[in-house]
Amino acid sequence: MRKPIIAGNWKMNKTPDEAAALINDLKPLVASAQAEVVVCPPATDLAAAAAALAGSNISLGAQNMDYHDSGAYTGEVSADMLLGLGVKYVIIGHSERREYYAETDETVNLKVLKALEKGLTPIVCVGEKLEERESGVTAEVVRKQTKLALLNVAQGDVAKVVVAYEPIWAIGTGKTATSDDANNTIKEIRAAIKEVFGNVAEEVRIQYGGSMNPKNATELMAMSDIDGGLIGGASLKAEDFSKVVNY
What we know:
Blueprint: E1 5-9, H1 16-26, E2 36-40, H2 46-53, E3 58-62, H3 79-84, E4 89-92, H4 95-100, H5 105-118, E5 121-126, H6 130-134, H7 138-149, E6 162-165, H8 179-197, E7 205-208, H9 217-221, E8 228-231, H10 238-245
Parallel strand pairs: 1-2, 1-8, 2-3, 3-4, 4-5, 5-6, 6-7
Helix pairs in contact: 1-2, 1-10, 7-8
């Protein structure tokens, strides 16, 4: 059985004080959650978030990291810096990073390898653009992205990786894939992992990340291969996020 994992990606929202307030509102609402719960605030909020999360069942995640250990990389944050703040998870290769900040399959892979080396759990994002979906190449796109993201990952580390399927056309648009479409694409991702790594693919948790919200979470989470959600807008309100967590 794969334990569901619901992670909130706050993107570029909330000051440290606002982050602490949101977490304090959220804690009692998800205290009995059956799913694993993660919040991923901006880097500037991580220390405040860690303090607010102390003693709770919510884990701390980051939205990005560099694959270098240290050096002249202005504005970047290393895995060791994240670990020093109590971070356990890190989102890698989000479509916004790929689109706006020139993330490539190669840099995503380097970050995945570094996260695993350091003991962080990567939440690796893959997904197709609208024109790719309309051209009927969704399966090919997500299979390729998945295999390249996991290049050179050790067999024993594969099950530690979380994959998030986020159709780019459904992020922040209010549009969502049907539950069957989402599940079928996630099956393609799992099949790609199985081609390279074998049956351990059945242990890999794969989230859906395309505008999951309180209205559609129950239906999506009922699907055979959807193991959680990477939640954007709905994670910025404690009540909305808790409804997704407690689907």
